[in-house]
Amino acid sequence: MRPPTTPRERSTPEPTPARDGANTSGSGPETASQSSSPSSSESSSPAHDPVTDLSDLPPAWSGQGVLARPGVPLLAALALWAYAMRHTDVSRLDDYGLVSALHPAFWAGLAVLTTGFWFTVRDARRPAAWSAAYVLGLLAMERATQAVLYPTPLYAWGWKHEAVIDHLLTAGGLQTADQVGDMAVYDQWPGFFAAQAALQRLLGVDSAAMFMAWWPLVSNLMLLLPLLLIYRTFTEDRRLIWTAVWLFYVANWVGQDYFSPQSVAYALHVGVLAVVLRRFGRSAVRRGRPRQAVWTVLIIVMVVAIVISHQLTPGMLVVCLLALCLSRRYRDWVPVVTTVVIFLAWCLTAALPFLSAAMPDMIRSIGDVGANVETGYGATPTGTGAIATSWAARLLSGSVLLLAAVGVLRQRVLRHRARPLLLVGAAPLPMFAASSYGSEMIFRVLLFMLPGAAFFAAAALLPKVRTLAADAAAQEAGNRQATLPAEARRWGIGTWVPLAALLGGTLAFVPSYSGKDRINYFPPQEVALVRQLFDQAPDGSLVVAANRNYPDAYASYWSVDHYWFLDDARSHVDRIVDSPAATLARDMAGVERPARAYFLLTQGQLANSEMNGQLDKGQLDRIRKSVAASPRFRLVAENSAGWLYVLKQSGGAER
Question: pTM score, two decimals?
């Protein structure tokens, strides 16, 4: 058995290699002489020095049993996950989505994984590779589960982006608004789609659907390196770094990691912040001024990729960089001016057609905070499952933000040393007043607050940060708690309460992230039905559906029109409910040969309408039965996932 840790061992962190622009305080004798009290240490040490030590945590693994081997819980968790994947049936999802479908072994594996991570990360003797392995295990269990279980990619928006890539490859270039109407907005921000088209050609696949199911895992892996770089800027303590990374992934339930421009733009956003925080601080500029040009070029490349790919992320980046300028350590205007110039240049050239049309509505929404955060018709969770999922997500985000506030108040040293990260975390808040962003601004603000919030939330779960001089002063003063044997403190409240919080957040991620899979999952039968429609629809045809929540909803959007009647005025929706077949027939009557008018109703549309407070199952069934009984419609195809009808055309033979 390892002897109790001595006071000297507890107060001295492991040496770490010096990095450019970072003072590894605690690795040499000069640190011990910087001050003799916490207050003098903070005032005399350079503001840019990272925190290198937390107050002591006793060894979490002891003895020669299972707990002495950190790989055992990890392997056990992954084995339980693999078993759960083989025994989970997703063919009949209810209103709780994947939550109620998962085999109990999944939940047991997630609990074992979280517990193993917590006791491993708390032990400073364990190499950081073990913490990294647990985080990768978390990503596998939380981000790859859907790709393993579902035979088709999730999210109607992901399928929409696949259609945009198909259009880009088919058209061979960008299109104008006159050519593709409202969808031209994607041609005005083509970065992501052009890159994916090139990747598709490189891989030799027919469609991005071949790999987009795995995109959540890929996009989260892209975030790992910049997150580590950001957190290592402010602390050398592996426990704080990896706990912050874990909390970031657990709290990132918003769902913007799917196959989308946002996923890549967000990773680049975090990458820009990592470069600025590490290479544009005052000390870094003084020590490596000739190398600043290299980092500036890197920032320019990343900012250009963000600006040409996504509308919102450049604005979020600008407010974060402006917030950093409030700190004397980062009062360098090069990054923010560079970002603003590139952003404005794109808005005044390629994106000008879209912005000219959208600007009046954007200006009206500024300052209207209530309207910017309300949900409205068609976005209100309805039913026990949808409401439970919504509350799980709210409680998860609220808990992490509350923990972050506790960390800021409790960790006096971090509040000073990591103030730039605190500013970055708070910077997105004013965007609430800027725009509703399709009723999603509240989720986007949470997403962009996460890097800072996760860091201070992790600090709330760990002991108070102390300088080495403060440790020494406490020991000289006879601080009994500081010199208490490790065995006496090993299983105290500081172990189990943070573990319970970490475990609760990790388990809550699943309903927050996967609780709406009844809406987001499209079974193979639904995919086959929709593809049958577009395989036979002539150019100029019209597809009428309840809403756009079905796979390939935008397939051939450059040659086939779409009408989703639940997006129409509520008065017209009521007319459709009152007299379904007659009203829909009038809406579809303007299509002339050889084009056709189709009515499509699928499982995904039914789920989306019910769970988001539009029409209930009885109303939608009434619409479908009315169309089926009408002599003006003919059934083209049906299966367990939906129905496809065509409006009969007068004159000539009916196909």
Answer: 0.84
